[in-house]
Design brief:
Length: about 350
């Protein structure tokens, strides 16, 4: 039995499908939104990360647990929720794994948990954790969650940590943070771009790497599962070519965007970002700015990210990002998030 927390998210939905394609028995741990696993041949268990009893019930009889559930919050004042879900929730997952005799825990962290400086050499698995007051709250929460996982390793739990970059892909029902950004570009709802860029990885490639890590990796390993770096301007041009919607012409210099970032959460209160995407049952109440100080910090991060370790151990080979974008936008159109 393989258990997946966060099974209804973008990564979880793709991982569950990949596991089922290999004939694995999967138990999907879900919270409220279950569309990503609806109709699949999986056992669904509702559980809260902050409930140890829920997690023990969900992990009973499991050999491998993939812990994907987490919170992304890039707005000021988000630390209490980030600490509760990402740090304390991961601590509860580790304790439940130890209590239930789970053989292996595969934790999906983030590239943001690792320090990207100095910028003169690629980011790899040797980088220290981004745990300090100078780092964004989300980065610190993922770094501290990794420390909880490493504490479980010291207590006898086989652990593997994955550090993906910006994840995009199909089966993005909620949709995810970067999925919303792609949708907004395709709908012409982003008036201006900023400098910088991200390293982007396909959710399907991440799922394949995660499965290989669960089956083949020695315990105690860490793997960066990245893809390809593209500037925001390049991504906007790709989306424009695929969607037929012109890309924003205005590119705001990073320095000016940094000065204006504190205003973005205020403006987002008056700008519905979700519920405007044709989602079934979507609400216009979810208003998060695309540009914040934290996202600008990410856009300025080291563009060199190495997945060489995953190539050696996991036979990991990410697909071109243009293919990812084409498949993602096609899925959004097929499922009513975009007008064809």
């Amino acid at each position: 039995m393989i258990v997946v927390t966060g099974a209804a998210g973008l990564v979880g939905g793709n991982l569950v499908r990949a596991l089922l394609a290999q004939g694995q028995a999967v138990r999907a741990v879900v919270h409220r939104d279950r569309r990503a696993v609806g109709g699949l041949d999986v056992e669904q268990v509702e559980a809260e990360l902050l409930s140890p009893n829920d997690l023990k019930r969900a992990f009973a009889g499991a050999e491998i647990v993939y812990h994907l559930a987490g919170l992304i919050s890039l707005i000021p004042g988000g630390w209490p929720d980030l600490e509760r879900v990402n740090v304390l929730g991961t601590r509860n997952v580790v304790e439940a794994c130890l209590s239930c005799g789970v053989r292996r825990l595969v934790y999906c962290s983030s590239i943001q948990a690792l320090q990207s400086e100095p910028a003169g050499r690629p980011v790899d698995e040797s980088r220290p954790l981004a745990d300090g007051p100078s780092f964004p709250a989300y980065d610190r929460s993922k770094a501290r969650a990794e420390k909880e996982v490493l504490a479980g390793l010291q207590r006898g739990l086989e652990t593997v940590i994955l550090n993906p970059t910006a994840v995009v892909g199909p089966f993005d029902y909620k949709p995810s943070y970067f999925g919303r950004a792609v949708l907004m570009l395709a709908r012409g709802r982003i008036p201006a771009l900023v400098g910088g860029g991200f390293d982007w990885v396909d959710a399907r490639d991440l799922a394949c790497g995660a499965i290989q890590a669960g089956l083949k990796s020695p315990g105690g390993e860490r793997y960066i599962l990245s893809g390809h770096w593209h500037a925001v301007r390049e991504v906007a041009a790709m989306v424009a070519a695929l969607s037929g919607r012109p890309a924003p012409r205005l590119v705001v210099p990073m320095g000016l965007a940094w000065l204006a970032a504190p205003l973005m959460p205020l403006l987002a209160r008056f700008t519905p970002l979700s519920g405007d995407f044709g989602m079934t049952g979507g609400k216009a109440g979810r208003r998060e700015p695309i540009y914040t100080r934290d996202t600008l910090h990410w856009l300025r991060s080291n563009p060199q990210v190495s997945y060489a370790h995953a190539v050696r151990d996991l036979e990991y080979h990410p697909r071109p990002f243009q293919e990812t974008l084409a498949d993602t936008l096609a899925w959004f159109k097929e499922n009513g998030y975009l007008t064809p």
